[in-house]
Design goal:
heterodimer, A: alpha+beta, eight-stranded antiparallel β-barrel, 3 helices, 9 strands, elongated, B: Immunoglobulin-like, 4 domains, eight-stranded parallel sheet, seven-stranded parallel sheet
């Protein structure tokens, strides 16, 4: 049947939860090591990738089981290895709608998702020149959505949920020393390329539809 | 001996023509031999022969051209062969001539560019019989050094600067400079400017030895890039030399001199309509806009005029109709110097249309998209649809094979069929010819118009198909508006009963865990039940009756005030309690009664 609701946690989510436990166990050491002078406090990410929705019939209506996403994040490091911040994505897909009496697809439909995440993140950075920095985090999600059906009224709303994410950052500063120097003179301490996996759970209670999914992302992060 | 001489001569000729180095000037067509003008130039550059010509067919070309030596670039029709730059930036001319010799650019319209033609360090360049209308922040022709260039019989209209020349080696003859900010710049070279018209420029720059200026060049229609001259234009017969068109003294501007485009501008705004009722025979009345070029409207003998082309079998040229005037007026018909003409005594005939087949019906919200196969001889199609019968409504939807029926009732099952219609259709075009009597001086065809004429016949109906228009739900279901069974039972999502159930759901079910679980279960399973209901219409009254108490309860809980709800609740409790007590008393009496 069309309106099936998948609320099970995926393998990705399970993996992230495991890492989160490791992060908490590690955080004691992190706080003890936090003696770096002039450390950067802020970070900004620009990222994009693919989004695999939790709902299992996405491909029937939108032609594919995934779609594109882009996002931004702004974080504040209250400790060198711990930061909180806000991030948001834009996810959009177009396809056909559902005609229950005919039990078929039809019409033109588009869906826009705007998850806004408040997150707490742990970054395993022990040296300012550390090339590979794993990180893990999670937090509260508020998912705004908008459905457009050609010739019918739009439908907007939002639901609450949560998210977990983990990834690896690669320090780029050593690749271009002169560029790094110029960036430093403008207040940018470090630049990272990163890959990330994120799981969002955001269920619409009225219909038990889960707007969450798995996001696989590439991006650039600057610390300043 | 004579035979030997003959053979040696033939051998010599073969050797001469067999040599790659020896060739003849050739004409290369664009599009045709090459898709773009630059491709043709590059091809000639690889195998050049003196006098090579690129003939560019009518059309609009967005290219930035780099020319080569010993080449002629000629447009097929000045007003219809339009050159625009590939990249619309000021620094990118449409045509660039650098370090070349013997280049001719003729019979084009240059428009929408920062620079039309730029010439640098080149000799023996001729730019003639072109229209240059580039607009704001433009220079039509820019000669940047001592290049030797002849600028002859061009029309410069609405440019920022029409012509920039760095020396008097640029000879300027028989041109019209009209409505430009600056006509010729700089103003310090006064030689070699002869017989040009300077009209309504903000600054003529330098005019040289020229006819008197006037207020209006009387172009036919600059907005359509038609820079032919109207009757009484001050630029008629004011140039040096002779016009190839009418043999009189040369006009100034793009349509004067030895190499002018001899074709009148195509006829505009042709319309046609069935005039059978007026004439009493199958007839078509055709109207068009007059071509106001003095060469067409010239009142001296012979006068110009128009030709009407028609065909009842096929669209597009060559228009070989034969039936007008009961067969006495085959296409084309010389209509003379008029702007309306009626084709009379036509014989519209058509073949029998085949029956189309519906290939798909795609329901949507209050609509159904229908597709069908094309039929032989069909000139249009007629859709039939209805709920009780396919003949309830019908519409002629034109010559298409897909159409969307709209304004339908959601939830109702529609029966749909299609038929093909056949009717004779006439295709008509008009041309203009000038007053010279030269049969080659005839314009290209106007835009074609078509008119259905005579009786039509209809094929049988296709096999019918059914479809149920309904509201479209986006996936995943977020709106919680899927009261599918009730919608099917009451026929519309907007029915008051359905709304009452929705309100109850929102206020009483979605506010608690049990209610939400029920709604989720309902949304998963109710579409199947609703489909069954649609397929078995006889159940609808029964389901409606069964739903009625639920609807009344829903209305009560959602619409009644708390006071009324409390009173009804108390009364219900009292009634139920009394009922319970009475039953209990009866049981007790039965138990005490002797057996």
């Amino acid at each position: 049947m069309m309106i099936m609701h998948s609320t099970k946690l995926t393998l990705t989510t399970t993996g992230i939860i495991t890492c989160l436990f490791m992060m908490i166990a590690w955080s004691g050491k992190a706080l003890a090591d936090d003696d770096v002078k002039d450390r950067p406090h802020w970070s900004f990410e620009f990222k994009g990738g693919v989004y695999y929705p939790e709902e299992d019939q996405w491909d029937r209506f939108y032609g594919n089981d995934h779609t594109g996403q882009i996002g931004m994040a702004l974080g504040y490091k209250f400790k060198r290895r711990l930061e909180f911040g806000i991030e948001s994505y834009y996810i959009q897909d177009r396809g056909m709608g559902f005609l229950p009496l005919n039990d078929t697809t039809g019409g033109e439909v588009s869906i826009n998702l705007y998850p806004v995440n408040l997150f707490l993140l742990y970054r395993a950075v022990f040296n300012e020149n550390q090339i590979v920095v794993p990180y893990i985090g999670g937090g509260w999600t508020h998912m705004f959505y908008n459905q457009k059906i050609t010739g019918q009224d739009n439908f907007d709303g939002s639901v609450d949920g949560y998210h977990l994410r983990a990834g690896i950052q690669f320090l780029l500063d050593n690749l271009d020393k002169s560029g790094t120097y110029r960036s430093a003179s403008r207040g940018i301490n470090n630049t990272y390329f990163f890959i990330e996996a994120e799981s969002i759970q955001a269920e619409e209670k009225k219909t038990s539809s889960n707007l969450g999914g798995q996001l696989y992302t590439l991006g650039v992060l600057i610390e300043f | 001996m004579q035979k030997l001489t003959k053979h040696l001569s033939l051998l010599g000729l073969l050797l001469m023509f067999g040599q790659n180095e020896v060739g003849f000037a050739k004409d290369v067509n664009v599009p045709g031999t090459y898709a773009t003008i630059q491709e043709a130039i590059d091809a000639i550059d690889e195998d050049p022969d003196e006098g090579d010509t690129i003939v560019v067919a009518r059309g609009s070309y967005e290219e930035s051209l780099t020319l080569i030596s010993d080449i002629t670039l000629r447009g097929e029709e000045t007003a219809g062969t339009i050159l625009k730059p590939a990249v619309q930036v000021e620094a990118q001319p449409i045509a660039t001539i650098t370090n070349l010799n013997d280049v001719i650019i003729r019979n084009f319209t240059f428009t929408d560019a920062g620079t039309g033609i730029r010439v640098t360090n080149s000799v023996n360049v001729r730019i003639e019989n072109n229209s240059l209308n580039l607009g704001n922040d433009s220079t039509a022709i820019n000669v940047t050094d001592n290049s030797t260039v002849d600028v002859i019989n061009n029309t410069f209209y609405d440019n920022t600067t029409a012509l920039v020349r760095a020396s008097i080696d640029v000879e300027i003859t028989n041109n019209i400079f009209s409505n430009n900010d600056i006509a010729i710049s700089p103003a310090n070279f006064i030689d070699n400017i002869t017989n040009n018209c300077f009209i309504n420029n903000d600054d003529d720059g330098v005019t040289g030895d020229n006819p008197e200026a006037a207020d209006d060049a009387l172009f036919v229609n600059p907005a359509l890039l038609d820079f032919h001259l109207k009757q009484d234009s001050p630029c008629i017969d004011k140039g040096i030399g002779t016009d190839i068109i009418d043999g009189t003294d040369a006009d100034t501007g793009a349509y004067g001199g030895d190499f002018a485009d001899t074709l009148p501008f195509p006829v505009q705004n042709v319309t046609a309509a069935d005039a059978s009722a007026e004439t009493g025979t199958p007839s078509i009345r055709i109207n068009w806009e007059a071509n106001e070029s003095y060469l067409v409207t010239n009142t001296e003998t012979p006068v110009g005029g128009y030709k009407v082309y028609y065909d009842s079998d096929e669209s597009l040229p060559p228009y070989e109709g034969t039936d007008a005037g009961a067969g006495s007026l085959p296409s084309p018909i010389n209509a003379g110097n008029v702007t309306t003409y009626t084709l009379t005594q036509l014989s519209p005939i058509h073949g029998a249309p085949g029956i189309p087949t519906i290939t798909s019906v795609s329901p949507s919200n209050q609509s159904v998209a229908v597709s069908w196969t094309a039929s032989d001889n069909a000139t249009s199609y007629k859709l039939y649809w209805g709920i009780a019968s396919v003949n309830e409504k019908s519409e002629n939807v034109g010559n298409v094979t897909q159409y969307t029926l709209t304004g339908l009732e959601n939830g109702a099952t529609y029966i749909i069929a299609v038929s093909a219609l056949a009717q004779a259709t006439y295709y008509i075009s008009v041309t203009a010819y000038d007053s010279t009597g030269n049969p080659s001086h005839e314009s290209n065809y106007s835009s074609e118009v078509s008119v259905p004429l005579g009786d039509s016949s209809e094929s049988g109906l296709s096999a019918s198909m059914t479809a149920i228009p309904e509201e479209v739900f986006a996936y995943p279901l977020l709106s919680g508006e899927g009261c599918f069974i009730a919608t099917a039972a009451y026929g519309s999502y907007d029915a008051a009963q359905v709304q009452a159930l929705r309100d109850f759901r929102d206020q009483y079910l979605l506010t608690n865990e049990f209610g939400r679980s029920f709604v989720s279960w309902y949304y998963q399973h109710s579409p199947a039940a609703a489909r069954y209901l649609e397929a078995h219409q006889e159940w609808k009254p029964i389901i409606s009756a069964l739903l009625a108490p639920l609807v009344i309860l829903a209305l009560f809980f959602t619409q009644a005030s708390w006071l009324i709800k409390s009173v009804v609740l108390i009364l219900s409790c009292v009634v139920l309690t009394r009922f319970y007590l009475r039953r209990r008393r009866r049981r007790r009496i039965h138990a005490m009664a002797p057996v």
